[in-house]
Write a structure and sequence with these properties.
CATH architecture: 4-Layer Sandwich
Protein name: Glycosylasparaginase
GO molecular function, one term: hydrolase activity, acting on carbon-nitrogen (but not peptide) bonds, in linear amides
CATH superfamily: (Glycosyl)asparaginase
Bound molecules: N-hydroxy-L-asparagine
Low-confidence stretches: 1-33
Strand order of the largest sheet: 4-3-2-6-5-1-11-12
Largest sheet: 8 strands, mixed
Structural class: alpha+beta
Organism: Flammeovirga pacifica
């Protein structure tokens, strides 16, 4: 197992190279037990995340290390406009980041409304490992990050600033999910030991109110993991996921015997029912992975896809989630 320091060095060295993985490099050195290890991640950027995660899972590393390393890839990519560096700002032009992480043993950490720090997921992990708390927000989260060696950086790229200035001309707030197929990244993994973990990180809804926090850093909403059952993560309009305690409900459905795909579908349909007067343009999608390595997803509307990597000869690949309605 890697020490944390070695791990951070490893992620820095490999994340760039892993953006376009060769399927032939995705081999598994450990012992295969059932359908594990396996990792699933939301949207097209899940592909690069899975590749980074598989480098760890394939060496017998932990699901926790894998999901953290995985989501750090889009966090660092300025072309991903909804996660980390390069993410679209709020209406005041500030990039504010939300993230959380959870392992198989009900340990979790989260940060919200974090500014100027490129890797909120790694700060969230430190909240989990180094503090008695589950969540730190805003200025306190930034102070905590700086005190632990994270660098202060301007996360607003020229492109995101230009888009924000264009938006300011009309200042019309209409959250639209699915644009250019990259949104919040949620990742779930099951390692060779059979341990589950999940991570979720986002810059949130573009042009949100300053101070708005979505579902992504909220354990139970954007992410939930029960090591005995399974894990789930969400993408889409955070307010709808918060109102319905989305990811926790997906895990409860699995606890009651549903498959991951069925569990996601049941909770998406509940969101449709409870939002019937606010359905226009509403998109929410869930992914779930159970303790046996079975996975699935479901979304309100078409267009939600996810990356899967496991120990089959299919390697790292994209799958489309089933959905209830077209746009
Ligand atoms: C949020 N759930 O802040 C996030 C945004 C998102 O796909 O997931 N977009 O509401």
């Amino acid at each position: 197992m890697r020490s944390r320091r070695e791990f951070l060095k490893f992620s820095a060295l490999t994340s760039a190279a892993l953006l376009t993985p060769q399927l032939s490099t995705l081999t598994f050195a450990g012992k295969r037990k059932g359908n594990k290890p396996v990792m699933i991640s939301t949207w097209n950027h899940g592909f690069g995340a899975n590749a980074a995660g598989w480098e760890i899972l394939g060496e017998g590393g932990t699901a926790l290390d894998a999901v953290e390393a995985g989501v750090r890839v889009p966090e660092a990519d300025p072309n991903e406009r909804s996660v980390g560096y390069g993410g679209l700002p709020d209406r005041e032009g500030k990039v504010t980041l939300d993230a959380c992480i959870m392992n198989h043993a009900y340990e979790c950490g989260a940060v919200a409304f974090l500014q100027d720090i490129k890797h909120p997921i790694s700060v969230a992990r430190l909240v989990m490992e180094k503090t008695p708390h589950a969540m730190i927000v805003g200025k306190g989260a930034k102070q905590f990050a700086l005190a632990n060696g994270f660098k202060e950086e301007n996360l607003l790229t020229e492109k995101s600033e230009a888009d924000w200035k264009e938006w300011l001309k009309k200042s019309e707030y209409k959250p639209v999910i699915n644009i250019e197929n990259h949104d919040t990244i949620g990742a779930l993994a099951l390692d060779a030991e059979g341990n589950l973990a999940g991570a979720c990180t986002t810059s949130g809804a573009a042009y949100k109110m300053h101070g708005r926090v979505g579902d992504s850093p909220l354990i139970g909403a954007g992410l939930f993991v029960d090591g005995e059952i399974g894990g789930a993560c969400a993408t889409g309009l955070g307010e709808a996921v918060i109102r319905t305690a989305g990811s926790a409900m997906v895990v409860e459905q699995m606890r009651n015997g549903k498959s991951p795909a069925e569990a996601c579908e049941i909770v998406v349909k509940r969101i449709i029912k409870t939002h019937k007067n606010k359905l226009e343009d509403l998109q929410v999608g869930f992914l779930a992975l159970n303790k046996d390595g079975e996975y699935g997803g479901y979304s309100i509307r078409s267009g939600f896809n996810f990356a899967v990597v496991d120990n089959t000869d299919k390697g790292n690949r994209m799958e489309d989630a089933p959905f209830k309605m077209e746009w």
